[in-house]
TrEMBL record:
Upper lineage: Eukaryota, Metazoa, Chordata, Craniata, Vertebrata
SUPFAM superfamilies: Hedgehog/DD-peptidase, Hedgehog/intein (Hint) domain
Domain Hint, first and last residues per copy: 199-305, 307-351
Binding of Ca(2+) 2, residues: 93, 129, 132, 134
A Pfam short name: Hint
Domain of life (superkingdom): Eukaryota
Name assigned to this protein: Hedgehog protein
PROSITE patterns xref list: INTEIN_N_TER (PS50817), PROKAR_LIPOPROTEIN (PS51257)
Name of the gene this protein is made from: dhh
Protein's GO biological process: cell fate specification; cell-cell signaling; central nervous system development; gliogenesis; intein-mediated protein splicing; protein autoprocessing; regulation of gene expression; smoothened signaling pathway
Length: 456
């Protein structure tokens, strides 16, 4: 028995090492595993086009104006001066006003300066307007807060401006507008914006289906609960909640609201991954995980119906609203049905497969904890057959569904019977922050991946 335990531990250790090696290969230079091939072809923006396709002061773009900043106001300390030698500042007022901007705007501008030099060797980024202290813009302009810039290339070649706009999107500006034939307008959210500080999440009132067929809000979901998800093979399964990548019941955030022709309504942050396709395909493998901000009317998502079927449904409207509570449960399967719509557990990086592998150590640790605590399920193969509704990806029979209800309830009751108090204590100890492992992966990703891998 002792030798068997150590043999199992050795297997888990080797698997963890192999996972880390895979991540290094996948995140490093070159094509790697699970990383999109490079170089990626950029598509130039058209004249008068904006990204995202909202107005600038919309919550899904750069957000509302917060008031003019003057040199003698307290908020002037929020601005920083950009002395980047690779950027040409027009500064026609001779006051260095065009160099003042928010930190987020400065970071985006510096990334764009590098992208411009890489795209056109010998060409530099040129800023024609940044912070405005003279009142030359409309009252709601973000130029008054140092959150907006007007840019060109220093050679003033207008043929480059369409691609320059797309490079600005890739550099992380929250709103980019090919505003004029003579410049590109870019802006960012306020530095203290909730949307800047948080990852991808769902609101607390969003509901998931737990084992037993019961609907449960994300705010009441607990670690160890089994929720309805879709496996990599296209089976509907009950997948355990391992942790919350983000959990905060009080914070407000900006959510996209997607409504389908079948009456499903999903709310999630723009940088969360959602499975959808331009055409209503008939197999889950044809649905790609992309940022929710890319969703538009006419695209199709996967929904789970009351009859136990999983099928495509077309998006009929996309809107933006603010709501309270931000929750991002991580499941073993890496997916979850939220309000009946299939979504990924991951956000920020537009590669579901890479993200799922990156969280492999979390799944290993969960298995290891179950091994030590004697909380492993009776029979792994039996559980797979119990939780999988059917081999067919878009149908779940009523008989199989009912079997899942009774079997999983029995399993959960045995686990919960050990200590209901322990479950409550675990819930209370969870912090209202992004999980430390998710933060760590994001920092490594910023170093190892190019900026185009992240949400704009």
């Amino acid at each position: 028995m002792k030798q068997s335990w150590w043999a199992r531990l050795a297997q888990l250790f080797l698997l963890a090492v192999w996972t880390c090696m895979w991540l290094v290969q996948g995140c490093g230079p070159g094509p790697g595993y699970g990383v999109r091939s490079r170089p990626r072809r950029l598509t130039a923006m058209h004249y008068k086009q904006s990204f995202p396709n909202f107005s600038e002061n919309n919550l899904g773009a750069s957000g509302r104006a917060e008031g003019k900043i003057s040199r003698n106001s307290e908020r002037f300390n929020e601005l920083v001066c950009n002395y980047n030698p690779d950027i040409i500042f027009k500064d026609e007022e001779n006051t260095n006003a065009d160099r003042f901007m928010t930190k987020r705007c400065k970071d985006c501008l510096n990334r764009l300066a590098i992208a411009v030099m890489n795209q056109w060797p010998g060409v530099h980024l040129r800023v024609t307007e940044a912070w405005d202290e003279d009142g030359h813009h409309p009252a709601s302009s973000l130029h008054y807060e140092g959150r907006a810039v007007d840019i060109t290339t220093d050679d003033r070649d207008t043929d480059k401006y369409g691609l320059l706009a797309q490079l600005a999107v890739e550099a992380g500006f929250d709103w980019v507008h090919y505003e004029s034939k003579y410049h590109i307008h870019c802006s960012v959210k306020a530095d203290h914006s909730v949307a800047v500080e948080k990852g991808g999440c769902f609101p607390g009132w969003a509901r998931v289906t737990v084992a037993g067929g019961v609907q449960k809000s994300l705010s009441s979901l607990a670690l160890g609960d089994r929720v309805m998800a879709l496996s990599a093979t296209g089976k509907v399964v009950w997948s355990q909640v391992l942790l919350f990548l983000h959990q905060d019941q009080e914070s407000w955030s900006t959510f996209l609201f997607l409504e389908t022709e079948d009456g499903h309504r999903l709310a999630l942050t723009p940088n969360h991954l959602l499975f959808f396709a331009p055409l209503c395909r008939h197999h889950s493998s044809e649905y790609q995980a992309q940022f929710a901000s890319r969703a538009k009317t006419g695209d199709c998502v996967l929904i789970h119906t009351a009859q136990g079927q999983v099928r495509p449904s077309r998006i009929i409207s996309v809107s933006v609203e603010e709501s309270v509570g931000v929750y991002a449960p991580l499941t073993e399967a890496g997916t979850v049905f939220v309000d009946g719509v299939l979504a990924s557990s991951y956000a920020l990086v537009e590669d579901h497969r890479l993200a799922h592998w990156a969280f492999g150590p979390v799944r290993l640790l969960s298995s290891f904890n179950q091994l030590l605590l004697g909380e492993t399920r009776k029979d792994h193969q039996t559980t797979d057959s119990e939780t999988a509704c059917t081999e067919t990806p878009f149908h779940c029979s009523t008989l199989a569904y009912n079997a899942d209800v009774y079997v999983n309830n029995d399993t959960l009751n045995k686990q919960d019977g050990q200590s209901q108090t322990l479950r409550m204590e675990m819930k209370e100890k969870q912090t209202s922050n992004v999980h430390w492992y998710a933060r760590l992966l994001y920092r490594f990703g910023c170093i190892l991946l190019d900026s185009s891998s992240f949400h704009p």
